[in-house]
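User: We ran a pulldown and think these components assemble together. Before we commit to crystallization trials, I'd like a predicted model of the whole complex to look at. Sequences follow.
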Amino acid sequence: MTKNKLNTRKPIYITHSLLIFFSAFIMLPFMWIISTSLRQAKDSFSLPPAFFPTTFEFGNYLEVFQEVPFLAFITNSIKVSGIIVIGHIFISSMAAYAFSRIKFPGRNLLFVIFLSGLMIPGQVTIISQFILMSKLQLVDTHSALILPALINPLGIFLIRQMMMTISDSYEEAAFMDGANRFWVFMKVILPMSMPAVAVTSVMTFIMHWNDFFRPLIFLNSYEKMTLPLGMTVLTGAFGQGNLSAILAAVTLSLIAPLLIYIFGQKYLIEGISLGGLKG
Amino acid sequence: MKKVLILCLIVILSIALAGCGNGNEQSTNGSSAPKNTNNKATGNEKQVELTLAFPGDDGKKELLEKLLETFYEENPNIKVNILYVASEGWGDYFNKLQTMVAGGKAPDVVRVAIEGIEMFVQQDLALALDEYMDANPEVIGDYSDIHPKLQDPFVIDGKTYGFAWDWNNVVMHFNTDMLKAANLPVPSKDWTKDDFIEYAQALTSEKDGKKTYGFAIPNYYFGASAWLFNNEASVLNEEMTTSKLDDPNAIEVMQLFQDLIYKYKVSPVPNPNTDMINQLMAGQVGMISAGKWPFGSYMKNDFTAIDVQFLPTLKTNKVIFGVGAFPVMKSTKHPEESYKLTAFLSGPLSQTNVLSSDSIPARISVMTEVLPKTPATNWAIYAESADIAKAVESPTEYAAIAAVFDRYMSAILSNQMDAATAMKKAKGEIDAILKK
Amino acid sequence: MKIKRTTKDTIAGYLFLLPALLAFVIFIAEPLLAAIFLSTTEYNIIHPYNFTGLKNFEQFLQDERLSQIYWNTFKFVIILVPMHMIFGLMLALGVSRVISKTGKYIYRTIFYFPVLVTTAAVAIAWQFMYDFDFGVINYFLNSLGFESIYWLTSPYWVYLSVAIFSLWKFVGTAFLYYVIGLQNIPSTLYEAAEIDGANRIQTFFRITLPLLTPTIFFVLVTTLIGATQIFDEPYLITGGGPLDASRTISLYIYEIAFQYHAMGYASLVAISLFLIILLITILQFSLGKRWVYYDQE
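Assistant: Here's a predicted model for the assembly, 1012 residues in total across the polymer chains.
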């Protein structure tokens, strides 16, 4: 008994020190970003650096919207991510329904093929997707970002997992009442799969909200850009030394993920549980 | 079953439509106007929309749009959509334009600098303007007013592809406050390399933990080329068939750059985001080599402690220049209107109104009028250099070659390799590109 | 009755599958096959393609930059994967020891938040933090008496710069996986161990670790695949420089395809990346059978 007590004291200190140290590591850059964004432009590079705001130049934030179409960046991101999520959910849940609840020849083989799609790195497919979009004259449009993103085998997998747990009796009852497949899908199975759907939605939204690579390749003009790409452009536009304004933009970009985190945290964790850890 | 099918189609279609919502306007109205229409628009001409591509960060947005209002008065049947292309440097900009061409969305008129004109012509993307010039000469105004040396790069194999609009060179900029603090005058035009190093050392100091440096290395193709030219060196040979970076003169310049950082310690290591204009304005650096473009920032930030001088003479003194114009793309559906636009954009009105601070107008009349207003005592050097300047090397493969050069320059400036090794490797890569 | 149902089912099945199947063929299957075909051509999009057979492959074998770039990618993987896995595990174990529920919640929020944030935005901020003369990090090193480090311009330090940023940004992912993995270990096992008098270390190695192996495996596989493909971090922080010091294979493919427009060669390099990832994953799965402990109840 006493042995245990001695054993537990030291590790707890070490544990807490580690956790606090790492928390500081995570938090300090954010504090620096926010504090410096509130400094005057000409002081933005001055040392010592700020971790707590001492000046409150909110004008920097206004400048961000004036210098580049920042609002457009945000609305574009919302639009693109939003449409992708909606389209993706429809397509994936229908496919998941087929894979989980309808018996048809070739089902298992097709499922494996779909999953193997996850293995193919983006760099391989993007080249041909780009050529395709060029030929379709869709380069520098949002369609070029949206269409290829509609298929994501991971979403199909997650929703299928959930659908497989639904008991057959619901469907059988509905069939006996004369309902057709589609009605059963829309009114019975899909609502019961909402947790998986919610999780996939949140994960997909975040993934595309933060996507930098594909907009970099497909988008050219300012008005079409999404937020990650817009951020890099902004740095060029403010190159004439206004670090405060750049960091103001960075701070602004933190708001959406923060909101998503507050409201979507539950789903994220569920998603990860559903996803892969149970072997 | 049917329902499912229909639903699927609806879903796919609605997504496609929603995504395509922001259609880009390509000029689809009307066919090309016949060759010999006269200049003024008649009420019967169909409405034409042109797309003008511009590098996004050129900062001339409001001035351009204001200028176009005059264009619309003279040409009510033409509307111009300005497409700002975000890019990092000319090489990246040209790549993006090529992508647009490949994607079937080529603009009608593009802003281009000399670095890209060879590529556009060799790739058969630029429209020869001579026949339109013959049909509508009044639109250009006085052709001879365009400084012949500056216009020359845009006349290739006897065909005219654009009218010089603005040009830039590379000179030395000084933060005069820092000069005063070090008790130094602005040097005379024949100052030497040793003078330069002395100046750089005098301007480097560390007071109360605040570091200042004498000179910011021009770690970009145009800026570094200026120094190469002054040492009787160059990136390529005259015929642009092979690289001359392994020439001892070239290596000497690059080694000087490395020494300025690590031996003399008068220059900061350039970070990826370093903006030397800002460093000069903030007093972090005393001298930078740039053209006229920093003046845009100086004015925006009310920075007046500035003066300029030719770069120091190394083995010689040849000022470098780069020049811009507005070629018309061959793929345009409205060549006649595009010609009018490009001529207008290069015209005296455009130059006077839009090029006020950060470029030098290419028309002699405008140059003489505008340059004296430059807020630097030595403004005259800008005017003088037009006659003697040497064009920046602009091969067809400019983008790729500039990328190689920048990469190896970064190796030198980060002390990864000595200049000789780096330049020899650069030559190897550049030669391989030229062979293709 | 039975026969009727099956045909109906087949049609229904394929109809539900149709949009996904279509999208899969157009955006995954076709691009893969196209890439294989393209690798035998020279194509810059503007002009029609030339069939050049094995010429790209020759270039691949002679490409001097390529070996350096593959080596860089390998170095990144060696640094990033263990770093993410070990720190993630340490943090998860640490948080599991925290008694108060609010404490747990706060730590989890803090550690996971950077994962959600837009990489491009924070990368830009970090790039300024790494500035040699005026950056925050060197400022602190100096105030502690150390010399400034060439974070972004030294071919040796760039790895650390990208790695530290990557850790800060993405350790939350591994962390969260481990947290869930730990939660799935029934507490009854721990109670039994305590009753039997096991100490901390024994508990960890005999119970926690073995039962965590599925999670560890999952994290290993995903982190490894991710690390071989990193693009955003090197692109945004160092741009691949200086020279090619931090250029990963993804950066190189981007350069070839979208700056030089050499679609054929780019496809070949991309396929080489794919094969490497495939190989590594197959290896992992076959080795995994040996050390991953699955619930054998």
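The first helix of chain B runs from residue 2 to 20. That may be worth checking against your pulldown data before setting up trials.

User: Thanks, that helps.
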